[in-house]
Fold Cytochrome c556.
Amino acid sequence: MKRTIFVASLLAIGVTAAIAQSNVVEQRQALMKEMGAQTRPIGAMMRGQESFDLAKAQAGLKVFAENSKKFVTLFPESSKSAEKTEALPAIWENKAKFESIGNKMSQDAQTALANIKDEASFKTEMPKVLQNCGTCHNEFRKKAS
């Protein structure tokens, strides 16, 4: 009887760990998708395909500032071998650099939020924020095939 309870407890712990691992992956993917959704209209404004809209720019910058700080905390060692993720092992091998890029993006987004008042300032400040995306994706995300 004790043995059955012990085995059942171990299985429950394993299932809980697997759920927690997939949950953290889902959380970080949701944050990244939200940032990606904000990038589309901002990119269109940068390219002149859409009229400049200060409210949209500010909304996007708020998402960038909040999500980039959050998602860097969602890479525990236990999620290193998770399936269905584009995260490279480099994240865990150079965690300090990964976290610094996320924190820099948050800071750059906050600075841009304070400085963007019109289209000219938007086109000056926004590339500084978006550069962080490319830096992180180039080093820490699997390339699309």
About this structure: The mean pLDDT is 88. The radius of gyration is 19 Å. The first helix runs from residue 2 to 46. The chain has one domain: 2-140.
